[in-house]
């Protein structure tokens, strides 16, 4: 067995032990003075005399005593951050920076720092320029660079689609949570958008190619899939891409098919259709004798390959049955 790293519980245990060590070190700073003060008070020594012997005031004693009480409860040591922080006060450099940035909205802190030093005699580090830019953006004096990375907005589920929830695949029935995905394939100098649907139990696949990966293409693919599928589609599972929104989502609602959207960066939840994409990439698109040079001809060749996959290619997970044989036997058992 090959071990790539420690179990996450090991890291949690280390973090807890390290926190306790830090608490012990922090506790030792106050225990000695508080213990000596308590001992003197037990011997009826006055506060002024205790201050001289322990080297701390009465207020400091009670403050340290409270800190120890909080530490004994397991509290984290208080932050060392100063209460009063120095507020930045920009001067002439800010005015020059605003001018340079407005004239060159795509320039970052590195280029602006060089320009300020070269043309205006303002020597500022890149970090300082970056902090000034952040402050100016918050004030609305400069705009965010058009070339800056945009944060992806979280999808709002206000229509037909619903977010993904866990369900044991062993309890799923035929046609439940059919996985749909698309991949881009370039063959014979032409770019094809390969849409594919995969059924978990039977490993049945339906695929077709289109010129564009739009929601309209996904809708056309869905309508054809519903007509040709040898089983009832109970629900569909897709990634949160734009091609599976708009018209595709409306088509699912019209057909009464629940649409389940995976969380971001979780393509492994659609592992079945991803594996199907790999099968067709290796067994179909990589063939040297595949000479289709148009969407129509590629669609015809792909339909032949899909038919071979569903009716001829055996699957070990289905105990050697083909997808169509598995579906027919499942329907017979249900009846």
From TrEMBL:
Domain Integrase catalytic: 159-331
Pfam families cross-referenced by the UniProt entry: rve_3 (PF13683)
Organism this protein belongs to: Candidatus Bealeia paramacronuclearis
Protein name, entry field: IS481 family transposase
